[in-house]
Amino acid sequence: MKTSTTFSILFWLKQSQASNGKAPLYARITVNGKRAEISLKRKITITYWCPLKSQMRGTKEESRQINNYLDQVSSEIYQSKNELTAEGKFITAQTIKARYLKEDQQNFTINDIIEYHNDDMLQKLKKGTQKNYYTTQGYIADFLFTKFKVTNMYLKQLDYNFILKFETYLKKYTPKDHHKKMGNNTVMKHIERFRKMITLAYKLEWIERDPFINFEAKFDKVEREWSSSVLS
Model confidence over 152-207: pLDDT tens digits? Predict the structure, then answer.
């Protein structure tokens, strides 16, 4: 169980995108070794930049303005972290970035809840269960790319239809190492693990509604009908 959080801010130039002697300025937030980067929408003369101090060299007006701006950004990022802490929210590089950009709560993604789960919940699970979650997460990633041609999706976009499509994808999926499709029990295990991650996001108030409510009601009805047929 984690008892402390490491946190740092670094300002740097993305010199791979340099042109005419200037490079875009970025802020990098790091929490427990995980990073999130923010474009600061500024281009800086590379020769004036001091990477050791993460600020502009000299006393020219441009240097003073940029350094003052960096102080402001740093202060706002710290404020974002403090707000999340005060609200009892989970602290990650992505959640701090989202709060700083005023995009949090309504714009968490599937990958965000997977990262949260892997950082926090998986440490409390047995290795076999961890492996099963990694497998389910792999199917989620493949489903997103196969069905929607994306690598991520906002949690607020998930609905009953999304879950039905994921169920159909799993039932039709043919593993690459053999030709036998998944049985219904295996499909339900993957959906159950996905449901637990989404329920976690709901409890964290990352989404306003649980998209699995109607899906669970459907399977409760199927189970009742099956039980009735057995008893009759």
Answer: 998 988 999 999 999 999 999 887 766 678 888 889 899 999 999 999 898 888 88
Q: Give me the amino acid identity at 204.
A: L
Q: What is the pTM of this model?
A: 0.54
Which two tokens mark 24? Answer: 């875009």
Instruction: Give me 69's structure tokens.
Output: 């701006």
Top-confidence residue, 219 or 170? 170
User: SS3 letters for the chain?
Assistant: CCCCCCEEEEEEECHHHCECCEEEEEEEEEECCEEEEEEEEEEEEHHHEECCCCEECCCCHHHHHHHHHHHHHHHHHHHHHHHHHHCCCCCCHHHHHHHHCCCCCCCCEHHHHHHHHHHCHHHHCCHHHHHHHHHHHHHHHHHHHHHHCCCCCEHHHCCHHHHHHHHHHHHHCCCCCCCCCCCHHHHHHHHHHHHHHHHHHHHCCCCCCCCCHHHHHHHHHHHHHHHHHHHC
Q: Which of 40, 37, 35, 59 is nearest to 48 (CA)?
A: 59
Q: What is the rounded distance in angstroms from the CA atom of residue 114 to the CA atom of residue 117?
A: 5
Pair of tokens at residue 132? 């099963």
